[in-house]
Design brief:
Oligomer: single chain
Largest sheet: 2 strands, antiparallel
Distance between the termini: 56 Å
Helix content: 55-70%
Strand content: under 5%
CATH superfamily of the largest domain: Fumarase/aspartase (Central domain)
Strand order of the largest sheet: 1-2
Number of helices: 19
Length: 463
């Protein structure tokens, strides 16, 4: 097959090089965006007089027919044509004749692929943005139901202080809110039209780039042709956003795995989001959460891959940049699949309130509140800390909780302790009194949930 760029070559490309060089096996995913960009380019060429109105319409009609044929699976792409751009151009020329060869006037594959990827990624980001909003809504709804479901909070995976399940989930809600705004920032930087940059230095044709930008829905036109074709920072940023979000999802999945174990027994996952063992009939495995935790690693790998590809490239385009797509496509698919399965898994899980409450009453999670009680009675905090430590050691020897001590036993640690110590160190009191902004009290949770609902409306464009 004679290459469209082969005029100065006297030999055909070696078959090994052809296979190595070809990207159609993966960049065919861009067919819709490639044809959409070409239609806008052809329409603009007709407007500025580089093409006649008839030629422009003939090209546009041909491209629309090719798009329909691809979507109806009537097209087989040719690896010898290298990439999606050349495949579409060859198909167009076969369909409408020599006028199809005029489509590439005033552009290069360098700016063509840059606009294709930006359009593709912009579309996928909008989809992921919607999925993140759905996840946030699910977390808020579950938190509403569990504003008063007491559970132990942890540090170092050791029981620390009592909180509520709603408060715990809203921590992930805050993380997801930041993931959403990061993606929105990324979308702004992706929303720049590179078409018209040519190979690296623009073109001598009087292209109307603003017209193309408007037709393709871009808010801005890139202001430097070298930058337009040679940077992929918007891809790097997207992959970094994905890596950060998957890190958040992986942490949540790790907790789901722990909570669903017999050792914790805080939740039961729905059978539809669990699997069994091929040899142990009693098993119910949190494989969905485990797999999501594992998929985080591949997203990290894709981020490191694109950073490594780009780190030493001189301006402008280099063939290395062909390696941006497979990792990008994989990251998009992985992120979307994780969000697709996580939200319903959370919605369908069963929360074991009594087991959470029982766990919160063990492990001396009210020890800090005991110390705070002594402080309010006039004991310096450091002294109060030591007193409570001694009381905990005493309870460990006796095999009991702080709540189980008699008033006389309490007074053995400090004569300032009164009958109201039992109310002060109740796990319900411990949670209710933590009523500063960001705390786990019902009042603060109501405030956080309302702010989350307002966030949803704003970022869904509802007001």
């Amino acid at each position: 097959m004679k290459k469209l760029w082969g005029g100065r070559f006297s030999k055909d490309t070696d078959k090994l090089v052809e296979d190595f060089h070809s990207s159609i096996s993966f960049d065919q995913k861009l067919y819709f965006w490639d044809i959409t960009g070409s239609i806008a380019h052809a329409r603009m060429l007709g407007k500025i007089g580089v093409l006649t109105a008839e030629e422009s319409e003939q090209i546009i009609k041909g491209l629309e027919e090719i798009l329909a044929e691809i979507e109806n699976k009537q097209v087989t792409f040719d690896p010898a044509a290298e990439d999606i751009h050349m495949n579409v151009e060859i198909l167009l020329t076969e369909k409408i004749g020599a006028v199809g060869k005029k489509l590439h006037t005033g552009r290069s594959r360098n700016d063509q692929v840059a606009v294709d990827v930006r359009m593709y990624l912009r579309h996928e980001m909008e989809h992921i943005h919607g999925q993140l909003l759905e996840l946030l809504e699910a977390l808020l709804n579950i938190a509403m139901k569990h504003k008063e479901t007491i559970m132990p909070g942890y540090t170092h995976l050791q029981r620390a202080q009592p909180i509520t399940f709603g408060h715990h989930l809203l921590a992930y809600g805050e993380m997801i809110k930041r993931d959403i705004t990061r993606l929105e920032d990324n979308l702004q930087r992706c929303d720049v039209l590179p078409l018209g940059s040519g190979a690296l230095a623009g073109t001598t044709f009087p292209l109307d780039r603003e017209m193309v930008a408007e037709e393709l829905g871009f808010s801005h036109v890139c202001l430097n042709s070298l930058d337009g074709v040679s940077d992929r920072d918007f891809i790097v940023e997207f992959m970094a956003d994905a890596a950060i979000c998957l890190m958040h999802l992986s942490r949540l999945c790790e907790e789901i795995i722990l909570w669903s174990s017999q050792e914790f027994h805080f939740i039961d996952l729905d059978d539809a989001y669990s699997t069994g063992s091929s040899i142990m009939p009693q098993k119910k495995n949190p494989d969905v959460a485990e797999l999501m935790r594992g998929k985080t690693g591949r997203v990290y790998g894709n981020l490191m891959g694109i950073l490594t590809v780009m780190k030493g490239l001189p301006l402008a385009y280099n063939k290395d940049m062909q390696e941006d797509k497979e990792g990008l496509f994989d990251t998009v698919e992985t992120w979307e699949k994780c969000l697709l399965v996580l939200t319903p898994m959370l919605k369908t899980m069963t929360v074991r309130r009594e087991d959470m409450l029982k766990a919160s009453k063990g492990g001396f999670t009210n020890a800090t509140d005991f110390a705070d009680y002594l402080v309010r009675e006039g004991v310096p905090f450091r002294d109060a800390h030591a007193i409570v430590g001694q009381a905990v050691a005493y309870c460990l020897d006796k095999g009991c909780a702080l709540d189980d001590l008699s008033l006389e036993e309490f007074k053995g640690f400090s004569p300032l302790i009164k009958e109201n110590i039992y109310e002060a160190i109740s796990v319900y009191t411990c949670v209710a009194k933590r009523n500063t902004i960001g705390g786990p009290s019902v009042e603060q949770l109501n405030r956080t949930i309302q702010e989350g609902l307002d966030f949803l409306k704003i970022h869904r464009g509802e007001h």
